[in-house]
Amino acid sequence: MSWINNYIAFKKNKSSGKCPKCGSDKVRVKEISCGRNSVSFFCDGCGDFRHFDECLTKDDNRP
To answer: pTM for this one?
Structure first.
């Protein structure tokens, strides 16, 4: 299992899932919607994490 499965589950039903490294269910999720949408997963059990960037938002001022 990998963090991509957590990402897919989160996008479908806002479930953070379990850590793919240690199996802990103590996974926190942080969404950021400023400039570039992104989602980060943090395992409080083992400290592993993963960050996923999504598309640019319409308020992004880059050309």
So the answer is: 0.79
